[in-house]
Design brief:
single chain, 118 residues, mainly alpha, two-stranded antiparallel sheet, 6 helices
């Protein structure tokens, strides 16, 4: 694991601040949730109940790739189409999201945890 390098962080050396620099917007963790549940293709993300706008989805996917949380892989050449796969760094967020889901179920009764994409 790399040592802290202030050039790589926007706010401070606090690990929570550093994580939020990449994950702390309205959409990013929901995209990671969908990846963890098996979604891979752009259209699949658009079908999520939160109804992310296409421009925001494209932007977040690029940011997640730049942060090393996912990679894109070509699955069709003409026209070129990509699918998205979590890296080990992205996969390591699984426990974070599970814990967040448990907290949400405790404090927001009636919510449900989504299941894997089939």
């Amino acid at each position: 694991m790399a040592d802290y390098d202030e050039r790589n962080h926007e706010r401070s050396c606090c690990p929570i601040a550093c994580a939020l620099d990449h994950l702390g917007d309205k959409w990013t963790l929901l995209i990671i949730r969908d990846l963890l549940l098996g979604k891979k293709r752009y259209q699949e993300f658009l079908e999520s109940p939160e109804q992310i706008a296409t421009n925001i989805l494209a932007n977040r996917l690029k940011k997640l790739e730049a942060a090393g949380l996912l990679t894109q892989q070509v699955y069709q050449k003409k026209p070129i189409r990509y699918e998205y796969v979590l890296t080990a760094k992205g996969e390591d967020l699984r426990m974070v999201l599970q814990t967040l889901a448990e907290w949400g179920r405790t404090y927001y009764p009636g919510t449900k945890v989504f299941t894997a994409h089939v």
